[in-house]
Amino acid sequence: MLWISAPIHTIAYRMKLGLKIAFGLGAVVLSATGVPTYEALHSVGILDQRLESLNKEAILPFALAQKINDSLDKMQTSLISAINETGSQQQKDLNEVTALEQEFSTSLVKYEKESMITTHPVMQDLLKKYAALEDQLTREQDAIKEVNQDYPLLKSLNHRIVELVKNGKREEANHLFNNTANEIYDQLDVNTKAFMRLQVEQGSYSSREGQAVFRATQKQIGFAVAVTILFGFIAVLGLTRILVRPLQELTLATQ
Questions:
Q1: Which H, E and C letters describe 144-206, residue by residue?
Q2: How many C-beta atoms lie closer than 10 Å to residue 170's C-beta?
Q3: pLDDT grade, residue 84 (50/70/90)?
């Protein structure tokens, strides 16, 4: 009876040993990779969110500012063409002037509501960090003020020129355009391009910030790797202690 119980006792210890080894290995893997992996993923997540925010607050406003300036350029081109064309082509140009006036007005309102620096806290913080906030705010406010003053006057001149064109008074339309409207177009072009320049500068600051965040993330990931190695070493020491004790017990049990 004693001869039979000894092997059973030994098998029981071996099963316990196997479980301890399994749990020990699991603890090693979890300790060595769990926390550092979380830190690395967390750092990458922060980088992604930061870059997405900066991208939204720099690239999208630039596209809208460019659309405003493009509308103005096309409006001027269509008006010149309408003055010098006749028939169906002239009517097509006049329709384009009307459509582009609406596009310009809609885009300008959208820019004021969604793309100005005052509507983007993240960009404000970034510009403040690089001591550029006050300068950008002043230049943007000056430009938007000038545009809002000049555009209603231009729109009124456009309508007067269109009426002259429709009534066949081409020379008078040319005179009004060349001596009055063209100058206002040029002033608006300067100020709408100011929006674009501001967005380019903001994009430059965003790029610098993105590179800084990326470098910081690289350091955090490097730290996570170092922590992984350290945790692995500590876990191996712990696993050694976990395994040595049952092996000693098994040895004593089989003697």
A1: HHHHHHHHHHHHHHHHHHHHHHHCCCHHHHHHHHHHHHHHHHHHHHHHHHHHHHHHHHHHHHH
A2: 16
A3: very high
Q: Residue 126 in contact with residue 54, Cβ under 8 Å?
A: yes
Per-residue pLDDT of 50-65, as tens digits, reads 555 555 566 788 899 9
CA nearest to 191, candidates 132, 123, 145: 145
CA neighbor of 62 nearest in space, from 214, 211, 206, 210:
206
Q: Are 57 and 120 in contact (CB under 8 A)?
A: yes
* pLDDT, tens only, 65-80: 999 999 999 999 999 9
Interior angle at CA 233, CA 232 and CA 236, nearest 5? 85
Reported as a pLDDT band with limits 50, 70 and 90, residue 38 is: low
Cβ atoms within 10 A of the Cβ of 194, count? 19
Asked if 227 and 39 touch (Cβ cutoff 8 Å), the reply is yes
Report residue 207's pLDDT band, with 50, 70 and 90 as the boundaries: confident
- Cβ(86)–Cβ(173) under 8 Å? no
